[in-house]
Predict the 3D structure of the following.
Amino acid sequence: MAKLIDQIPKPEKQHIKVLEVKKVMIPHPYCITPRHLTGKSMYLDKNAIKEAEKNNNAVCDICRKLVRDGRQQEVLSFGEYEEQLTLFLEVPKGNLNNIEGLHEYLMKIKPVLVKLKIAGIAFKQL
């Protein structure tokens, strides 16, 4: 991913920093449980997770807890998750709409993000 980050223009404002580009799971990380560890495979790859869901009633533990607490409608299967490239920026703490130069910077880099297939932006606020 280092090559991708090198293609993103650097911010002109000192208080905006480009941190990294990495893949993230949407809507949240898929959390495995002991039910996923069936012992049928040495590796817990995508196929092993799908197999555990099918044959061992394994589910994402985050989904299970969100459904239980009424914060999500249903438990998602592994196949319903998406991996997306996300740009991580460091910005000052506060309302993102009020950070000087942020909107202009995001509009400037938008064509580059589209070209690089970076679908999301995340902010670390300090």
About this structure: Helices lie at 2-6, 46-56, 61-68, 102-116. DSSP finds four helices and three strands in the chain. The mean pLDDT is 95.
